[in-house]
Specification:
The protein has eight helices and no strands. The protein has two domains: about 60 residues, no CATH class; about 70 residues, no CATH class. By secondary structure, it is an all-alpha fold.
Length: about 150
């Protein structure tokens, strides 16, 4: 995967809270160790404090630009699925991330409609009802394709 696409992935993953800053720094360190001609933004990224997400996202934007590719979106959904399946993230948090994905990441119209439909299904179902359990299971099943 090209640097620009990788940077776009890390930038979006940081925005959505799917990874921590140290993971993007580790990637920058790997690039610098293996490519002496890497853009200067990698050195800046590698020396950014891992908790300064704004600065990290700016450095990543310098490397990757602003629009996420379909491949990046699929990788992000893979992280969402992994976090939900592992219990790292609750179902409610997962739904929040999916809502944020639609709002802040360049997802295509089909994916946007799928995520919207799943969210509506969960939102209109009464809590602790069989309908709600079925709607939540639909989300879990849908996310499995990104595992």
């Amino acid at each position: 995967m090209a640097y620009a696409e990788q940077a776009s992935f890390y930038r979006a993953a940081l925005l959505l809270g799917l990874i921590r800053g140290d993971r993007a720094i580790a990637w920058a360190d790997e690039v610098l160790a293996g490519d002496s001609s890497a853009p200067a933004a990698f050195a800046e990224l590698a020396t950014t404090e891992p908790d300064d997400l704004t600065a990290m996202r700016e450095r990543l934007f310098e490397i990757g630009g602003g629009k996420e590719s379909a491949t990046v979106v699929l990788r992000l959904l893979g992280l969402v699925q992994t976090d939900l399946a592992s219990g790292r993230r609750s179902f409610a948090d997962t739904m929040t991330i999916l809502k944020q994905l639609r709002a802040f990441v360049a997802v295509g119209p089909d994916l946007n409609e799928q995520v919207k439909s799943l969210g509506v299904g969960v939102a209109i179902a009464k809590p602790d009802s069989p309908e709600r359990a079925a709607a939540e299971q639909c989300v879990r099943d849908w996310l499995l394709q990104y595992a």
